[in-house]
# Entry
Amino acid sequence: MDTHLDTDSRNNLTELPISPSGILWQNDFITPDHEQRLISIFQTELTWPERNGRLSLHYGYTFDYKTFGIDPDIPYKEFPEWLQPLIPTSESRPPDQVCLQYYPPGAGIPPHVDSHRAWDQLYALSLGAPVLMALKKGKGKAKEEQQRVEIDLLPRSMMKLGGEVRLHWTHGIAKRKTDTLPDGSVRIRKDRWSITYRWAREGECECGDTELCDTAQARLGTEKEKRSVLAAAAGAESDIKSGSESPSGFQAQEAAEYGR
Ligand SMILES: O=C(O)CCC(=O)C(=O)O
Ligand SMILES: [Fe+2]
# Structure
Protein backbone atom coordinates (compact mmCIF):
# COMPACT_ATOMS: atom_id res chain seq x y z
CA MET A 1 0.00 0.00 0.00
CA ASP A 2 1.17 3.51 -0.74
CA THR A 3 1.76 5.03 2.65
CA HIS A 4 3.79 8.08 1.72
CA LEU A 5 2.59 10.35 4.45
CA ASP A 6 5.21 12.49 6.03
CA THR A 7 5.09 13.14 9.73
CA ASP A 8 3.80 16.70 9.32
CA SER A 9 0.72 15.60 7.43
CA ARG A 10 -0.23 13.65 10.55
CA ASN A 11 0.32 16.56 12.91
CA ASN A 12 -1.69 19.44 11.60
CA LEU A 13 -4.59 19.88 13.99
CA THR A 14 -6.13 23.27 14.67
CA GLU A 15 -8.78 24.11 17.23
CA LEU A 16 -12.28 24.74 15.88
CA PRO A 17 -13.38 28.28 16.81
CA ILE A 18 -16.56 27.10 18.51
CA SER A 19 -17.90 26.32 21.95
CA PRO A 20 -17.18 23.88 23.53
CA SER A 21 -13.46 24.48 23.37
CA GLY A 22 -11.00 21.64 22.90
CA ILE A 23 -12.09 20.27 19.51
CA LEU A 24 -8.96 20.02 17.40
CA TRP A 25 -9.49 19.23 13.78
CA GLN A 26 -7.64 18.28 10.61
CA ASN A 27 -9.42 17.89 7.29
CA ASP A 28 -8.02 15.39 4.76
CA PHE A 29 -5.79 13.49 7.15
CA ILE A 30 -5.51 11.01 4.25
CA THR A 31 -6.31 11.18 0.52
CA PRO A 32 -9.55 9.82 -0.97
CA ASP A 33 -7.50 7.06 -2.70
CA HIS A 34 -5.96 5.99 0.57
CA GLU A 35 -9.40 6.02 2.18
CA GLN A 36 -10.78 3.76 -0.57
CA ARG A 37 -7.92 1.29 -0.11
CA LEU A 38 -8.57 1.19 3.64
CA ILE A 39 -12.29 0.61 3.15
CA SER A 40 -11.53 -2.24 0.81
CA ILE A 41 -9.24 -3.81 3.46
CA PHE A 42 -12.00 -3.38 6.07
CA GLN A 43 -14.53 -5.04 3.78
CA THR A 44 -12.46 -7.90 2.43
CA GLU A 45 -9.54 -8.67 4.74
CA LEU A 46 -10.80 -8.22 8.29
CA THR A 47 -12.93 -10.61 10.32
CA TRP A 48 -15.74 -8.74 12.07
CA PRO A 49 -18.02 -9.95 14.87
CA GLU A 50 -21.17 -11.50 13.46
CA ARG A 51 -24.04 -9.37 14.67
CA ASN A 52 -26.00 -6.30 13.68
CA GLY A 53 -25.28 -2.72 14.61
CA ARG A 54 -21.98 -1.08 15.39
CA LEU A 55 -19.00 -3.45 15.25
CA SER A 56 -15.56 -2.97 16.85
CA LEU A 57 -12.06 -4.38 16.36
CA HIS A 58 -9.23 -3.54 18.77
CA TYR A 59 -5.50 -3.04 18.32
CA GLY A 60 -2.76 -2.34 20.85
CA TYR A 61 -4.36 -2.95 24.23
CA THR A 62 -7.96 -4.08 24.10
CA PHE A 63 -10.76 -1.88 25.43
CA ASP A 64 -12.60 -3.51 28.33
CA TYR A 65 -16.32 -2.72 28.18
CA LYS A 66 -16.74 -3.75 31.84
CA THR A 67 -14.23 -1.29 33.28
CA PHE A 68 -14.03 1.06 30.24
CA GLY A 69 -10.23 0.82 30.58
CA ILE A 70 -7.58 -1.58 29.31
CA ASP A 71 -8.53 -5.25 29.41
CA PRO A 72 -5.74 -6.84 31.50
CA ASP A 73 -6.51 -10.33 30.19
CA ILE A 74 -5.94 -9.66 26.50
CA PRO A 75 -2.32 -9.38 25.33
CA TYR A 76 -1.17 -6.32 23.40
CA LYS A 77 -1.73 -6.66 19.63
CA GLU A 78 0.75 -4.94 17.33
CA PHE A 79 -0.78 -2.34 15.00
CA PRO A 80 -1.37 -3.95 11.58
CA GLU A 81 0.45 -2.54 8.56
CA TRP A 82 -2.58 -0.61 7.27
CA LEU A 83 -2.95 1.13 10.64
CA GLN A 84 0.62 2.34 11.06
CA PRO A 85 0.42 5.36 8.71
CA LEU A 86 -2.84 6.41 10.40
CA ILE A 87 -1.36 6.88 13.86
CA PRO A 88 -1.34 10.56 14.92
CA THR A 89 2.14 11.88 15.62
CA SER A 90 1.00 14.88 17.66
CA GLU A 91 1.35 13.22 21.08
CA SER A 92 4.64 12.26 22.71
CA ARG A 93 4.06 8.56 22.08
CA PRO A 94 1.79 6.30 20.02
CA PRO A 95 -1.68 5.54 21.44
CA ASP A 96 -2.13 2.60 23.79
CA GLN A 97 -5.47 1.51 22.37
CA VAL A 98 -6.94 1.79 18.91
CA CYS A 99 -10.47 0.81 18.04
CA LEU A 100 -11.75 0.41 14.48
CA GLN A 101 -15.53 0.66 14.39
CA TYR A 102 -18.01 0.03 11.60
CA TYR A 103 -21.35 1.83 11.70
CA PRO A 104 -23.94 0.47 9.28
CA PRO A 105 -26.58 3.06 8.29
CA GLY A 106 -28.82 3.68 11.30
CA ALA A 107 -26.24 2.64 13.92
CA GLY A 108 -24.94 5.02 16.58
CA ILE A 109 -23.07 5.21 19.85
CA PRO A 110 -24.83 6.37 23.05
CA PRO A 111 -23.78 9.69 24.58
CA HIS A 112 -20.76 9.00 26.78
CA VAL A 113 -17.54 10.39 28.10
CA ASP A 114 -14.59 8.05 27.67
CA SER A 115 -13.38 7.07 31.17
CA HIS A 116 -11.31 9.83 32.72
CA ARG A 117 -9.63 7.34 35.01
CA ALA A 118 -8.44 5.12 32.18
CA TRP A 119 -7.75 7.52 29.35
CA ASP A 120 -6.11 10.84 28.72
CA GLN A 121 -6.05 11.96 25.07
CA LEU A 122 -8.68 10.85 22.56
CA TYR A 123 -8.63 11.10 18.77
CA ALA A 124 -11.01 9.83 16.09
CA LEU A 125 -10.51 9.47 12.33
CA SER A 126 -13.69 9.27 10.23
CA LEU A 127 -13.91 7.22 7.02
CA GLY A 128 -16.72 6.50 4.55
CA ALA A 129 -19.94 8.46 4.94
CA PRO A 130 -20.25 11.61 7.09
CA VAL A 131 -22.34 11.59 10.25
CA LEU A 132 -23.47 14.15 12.81
CA MET A 133 -22.01 13.78 16.29
CA ALA A 134 -23.90 15.33 19.22
CA LEU A 135 -21.96 16.99 22.03
CA LYS A 136 -23.98 17.51 25.20
CA LYS A 137 -23.52 19.09 28.59
CA GLY A 138 -25.70 19.21 31.69
CA LYS A 139 -27.75 16.05 31.25
CA GLY A 140 -29.02 16.04 34.83
CA LYS A 141 -29.90 19.75 34.79
CA ALA A 142 -33.01 21.69 33.84
CA LYS A 143 -33.67 21.93 30.09
CA GLU A 144 -32.61 25.56 29.82
CA GLU A 145 -29.25 24.68 31.36
CA GLN A 146 -28.56 21.84 28.95
CA GLN A 147 -26.30 22.53 26.03
CA ARG A 148 -26.11 20.65 22.76
CA VAL A 149 -23.83 21.16 19.75
CA GLU A 150 -23.68 19.04 16.61
CA ILE A 151 -20.53 18.56 14.58
CA ASP A 152 -20.33 17.00 11.16
CA LEU A 153 -17.75 14.21 11.16
CA LEU A 154 -16.52 14.49 7.60
CA PRO A 155 -14.78 11.55 5.96
CA ARG A 156 -10.97 11.66 6.23
CA SER A 157 -11.10 14.19 9.07
CA MET A 158 -9.08 13.65 12.23
CA MET A 159 -10.52 15.05 15.45
CA LYS A 160 -8.95 15.34 18.86
CA LEU A 161 -11.22 15.78 21.85
CA GLY A 162 -9.20 17.70 24.42
CA GLY A 163 -9.77 19.97 27.39
CA GLU A 164 -13.35 21.15 28.02
CA VAL A 165 -15.09 18.97 25.41
CA ARG A 166 -13.21 15.82 26.39
CA LEU A 167 -13.75 16.19 30.14
CA HIS A 168 -17.05 18.02 30.60
CA TRP A 169 -19.23 17.16 27.59
CA THR A 170 -20.55 13.82 26.40
CA HIS A 171 -20.26 12.78 22.76
CA GLY A 172 -22.47 10.38 20.86
CA ILE A 173 -24.08 9.53 17.53
CA ALA A 174 -27.87 9.14 17.42
CA LYS A 175 -29.25 5.88 16.07
CA ARG A 176 -31.14 7.02 12.99
CA LYS A 177 -31.16 6.60 9.22
CA THR A 178 -30.83 10.28 8.28
CA ASP A 179 -29.21 13.42 9.61
CA THR A 180 -30.80 16.86 9.26
CA LEU A 181 -28.11 19.42 8.52
CA PRO A 182 -28.12 23.05 9.73
CA ASP A 183 -29.44 24.23 6.33
CA GLY A 184 -32.46 21.93 6.73
CA SER A 185 -31.39 19.37 4.13
CA VAL A 186 -31.75 15.70 5.03
CA ARG A 187 -28.74 13.47 4.48
CA ILE A 188 -29.14 9.71 4.26
CA ARG A 189 -26.72 7.75 6.42
CA LYS A 190 -24.39 5.33 4.64
CA ASP A 191 -21.59 3.00 5.77
CA ARG A 192 -19.14 4.70 8.09
CA TRP A 193 -15.94 3.56 9.80
CA SER A 194 -14.07 5.33 12.53
CA ILE A 195 -10.72 4.75 14.16
CA THR A 196 -10.59 5.85 17.80
CA TYR A 197 -7.20 6.32 19.42
CA ARG A 198 -6.80 6.40 23.20
CA TRP A 199 -3.79 7.23 25.34
CA ALA A 200 -3.75 5.68 28.84
CA ARG A 201 -3.77 8.28 31.58
CA GLU A 202 -0.62 8.64 33.62
CA GLY A 203 -1.62 9.74 37.12
CA GLU A 204 -5.14 10.64 38.20
CA CYS A 205 -7.67 12.93 36.57
CA GLU A 206 -8.02 16.09 38.65
CA CYS A 207 -10.96 17.65 36.78
CA GLY A 208 -13.33 17.15 39.72
CA ASP A 209 -16.45 16.82 37.53
CA THR A 210 -18.61 14.61 39.72
CA GLU A 211 -21.19 14.22 36.99
CA LEU A 212 -18.84 12.81 34.35
CA CYS A 213 -15.49 11.89 35.91
CA ASP A 214 -15.14 8.38 37.32
CA THR A 215 -12.11 9.44 39.39
CA ALA A 216 -14.02 12.35 40.97
CA GLN A 217 -16.94 9.99 41.65
CA ALA A 218 -14.69 7.36 43.21
CA ARG A 219 -13.19 9.98 45.53
CA LEU A 220 -16.66 11.08 46.57
CA GLY A 221 -17.73 7.48 47.04
CA THR A 222 -20.53 7.89 44.52
CA GLU A 223 -19.15 5.59 41.89
CA LYS A 224 -21.65 2.81 41.46
CA GLU A 225 -19.16 0.10 40.50
CA LYS A 226 -20.22 0.18 36.86
CA ARG A 227 -23.33 -1.46 38.26
CA SER A 228 -25.58 -0.77 35.33
CA VAL A 229 -23.14 -2.32 32.91
CA LEU A 230 -22.69 -5.44 34.99
CA ALA A 231 -26.44 -5.69 35.42
CA ALA A 232 -27.02 -5.31 31.73
CA ALA A 233 -24.40 -7.96 30.97
CA ALA A 234 -26.13 -10.32 33.40
CA GLY A 235 -29.53 -9.47 31.93
CA ALA A 236 -30.85 -8.24 35.28
CA GLU A 237 -34.08 -6.61 34.15
CA SER A 238 -34.91 -4.86 37.39
CA ASP A 239 -31.58 -3.04 37.58
CA ILE A 240 -31.88 -2.02 33.97
CA LYS A 241 -35.38 -0.67 34.53
CA SER A 242 -34.28 1.27 37.59
CA GLY A 243 -32.03 3.14 35.18
CA SER A 244 -29.13 3.45 37.59
CA GLU A 245 -26.45 5.62 36.12
CA SER A 246 -23.02 4.30 35.28
CA PRO A 247 -20.04 6.38 36.39
CA SER A 248 -19.66 7.76 32.91
CA GLY A 249 -23.09 9.29 33.18
CA PHE A 250 -25.14 7.12 30.90
CA GLN A 251 -27.86 4.65 31.63
CA ALA A 252 -27.95 0.88 31.68
CA GLN A 253 -29.48 0.40 28.27
CA GLU A 254 -27.07 2.89 26.75
CA ALA A 255 -24.15 1.32 28.60
CA ALA A 256 -25.11 -2.08 27.26
CA GLU A 257 -25.16 -0.64 23.75
CA TYR A 258 -21.86 1.15 24.20
CA GLY A 259 -20.33 -2.11 25.35
CA ARG A 260 -20.71 -3.99 22.09
O1 LIG B 1 -17.13 6.88 15.93
C1 LIG B 1 -16.64 7.88 16.41
O2 LIG B 1 -16.25 8.82 15.71
C2 LIG B 1 -16.50 8.04 17.91
C3 LIG B 1 -16.47 6.77 18.68
C4 LIG B 1 -16.38 6.97 20.17
O3 LIG B 1 -16.76 7.95 20.71
C5 LIG B 1 -15.80 5.91 21.00
O4 LIG B 1 -15.47 4.83 20.48
O5 LIG B 1 -15.64 6.14 22.22
FE1 LIG C 1 -16.00 8.09 22.76
Notes: Residues 112, 114, 171 surround fe (ii) ion (ligand 2) (CB under 6 Å). The mean pLDDT is 87. Residues 32-44 form the longest helix (13 residues). The two ends are 31 Å apart (CA to CA).
